[in-house]
Here is the input.
Amino acid sequence: MIQYICFGRPTFIVSATFFFFILSLFNTSRFCLNLISLLFAFVFPAAKVFGSGVVQPAALDVLLTTNVTEAVGFHEVLPSYLLLQGLFLVIVFVLVLVFNKKLSVRLFDNRLTLRYPLIALSLICVSVYGYKAFAPRIIEMIEAYSFILEEEKPKETDFKIISKVHKYDNYVVIIGESMRADFMSAYGFPLETTPSISKMNKHLISRFISPAPNTTLSVPRFLSLSVDGKLQDHNNAVNLAKLAGFDTYWISSQGFSGESCSPAGRVARYADHKTFVPIQNDFVLLPTIEKTLQDSHNKVVFIHIVGSHENPCSKLYGYPNNYKYNTGKVMNCYLATYNKTDEFVEKVVNMLKTNSKSYSLVYFADHGLNFVESSGEYKIFRDPEIKQSYNVPFFVVASDIRENREYDVTRSAFNMIDFYASWFGVKTNLTKDDYDIFNEESDSDPKIVYYDFTLTPYNEKKDGVKASDVYNKMTSN
Ligand SMILES: [Zn+2]
Here is the structure.
């Protein structure tokens, strides 16, 4: 019974409400508690979306990466039942706020003996539940974000260059955001979502598996060495490029968190030159990229774009949205961000072409996204158990690639550091020599990392809504 009261899943909300109610009887703590309660209620739908727990580092991501307008807009993409649950919590807490004074007088004034055991019971239940539910998450969040407090200076890299033969003068790495391969016309989606990329001469990998379901976990793993799943983010592509003799640039539209307190920012710290624009509009980066590419030194430019991040409607900044399908506003905006990213990539490729120098550009997205149907529309519901959270595009364009070729292989992003080494033309003490990411043998068992940093096989995940399901619905009436 006690077990159920304390640990039953739906009872968490009840016990938390009760806990806050009891504590709110005390004048001194009332204000803070009410504030926390309200914040908890507001954050609930977003936090729920990022996994099975109530608090996830990804929820902190949302808090850190977004401003107030963004946070409000963000809720548009969520399934409505989650919003209702959040609204329910807000209402409960407002009621507690309004009525607790009256209730406390009526119930407890002459029954102090009852009041203290009740407080004790509620404290025990909630603290045990709280420990069970939140402790792993809190530890993980502290670990993921601990560098905000510590590590003034970036840790020195362990890479040692054994040999180097430069293949190209200019390198560009575009790190896309929340883009799935299957919604790109370059990957066969029937709508022209990425017409420019489709036409480009490139080498493209059919099934590229991102290392994680969110930006915080994925971007550093796309850029750094991982040993047995353990991230060594001081051994990353930026300092590899520096050691290979390139000037390094980091150009980002991922805003505040991208600059000073995100795992991507941790890698960015190693770059010689850093530009973070405060507005999450990728096109604002173009003049900086153009100027950077005109510099005569050999260089590697890392571009971290905001792409198709939630809320996709707020990432368009006036960019035309030609999609008016019955699959809902979120899906239409999401596809329009593909058009925008397509044009962005095309513009960067054209800048490289107009330069007389040899070049190569790689594009990939940090992770996919999962969609669910909610009231006849598609909404975004991040789910690490779904394959589509990991199926991302990957292709390379270069001054010496003159055909449009698809490599029908499965590739894990955990090989990326070996890719950078061979791409930059270096051999090191920590990377495979002459690694060919386009080799014909698939990675049979790609792994992904979950919020608790454990590795799990991608092959065990299940299929969610496919792009073909969405297209069928679009064209069904
Ligand atoms: Zn992301």
Residues 2-148 form one domain. The radius of gyration is 25 Å. The longest helix spans residues 112-145. The first strand starts at residue 161 and ends at 164.
